[in-house]
Amino acid sequence: DNKAYSKYSISGDHHNRMVHNYIENVRNYSSFDVPIGFFTYIAGGFGNQIDRQIKSISAEANVHGSAITVSNVIKLVEEQEYKLKTHANLRDFFSVDRQIVLSDF
Q1: For the chain, does the N or the C end have fewer beta carbons within 10 angstroms?
Q2: Alpha-carbon distance 9 to 81, whole Å?
Q3: Global confidence as pTM
Q4: Cα(90)–Cα(75) distance, integer angstroms
Q5: Distance (Å, rounded) from C-alpha 36 to C-alpha 24?
Q6: pLDDT digits (tens, 9 = 90+) for 7-25
Q7: CA 18, 98, 104, 92: dihedral to nearest 10 degrees?
Q8: CA 80 to chain CA centroid, nearest Å
């Protein structure tokens, strides 16, 4: 879920949307038979409670997730030129149940 915020925080409404509209109803917009691998929020930056908010969604939805800044997504894409990540690597990378930081690369 991409957000146009410089300091995004997951409100109760956004929490419920992720759990009940997106994760629970993934079959409404995906024809794959496999369960969802992870969820991720992308934004310019995040509020102080983002790790707790990600863990809360993960626990309720029983799906791992993360948050990552736009600048770190760009770094991840640039890194692909030198260190190719497999599908399994990317699934694990985005399934840390907290904000992804540079030391995760």
Answers
A1: C
A2: 32
A3: 0.89
A4: 14
A5: 9
A6: 999 999 999 999 999 999 8
A7: -50
A8: 18
